Amino acid sequence: MHTLAALLPLGAPALPLDEAGKYVAGAFIVFMVLLVVYVAIMAAKLQRIERELRELASFAESRAKGEEAAPGRESEAPSISDSLASHGSRGGGA
Hints:
The chain has a domain of about 40 residues. The protein is about 70% helix and about 0% strand. The protein has about 90 residues and is mainly α. It has three helices and no strands.
């Protein structure tokens, strides 16, 4: 009899089924709303990444054609890689 009393709470529902249905439906609706919000956030993030990738690709193409320098680098001195390319790599080191 002792084991039957221990298993009784496992078999009996915490709420009557007619009341539990409301909570299950509410939880399902909340889950679906959160899922839709998550998908919308991911779609917006994907669009932003695609737009930035297109901008980078067009910048790389124009840079490869030599049409423009990197933004903010027009007044800078030549970079180290530019000076090494023009003077030739000496190798070795100090």
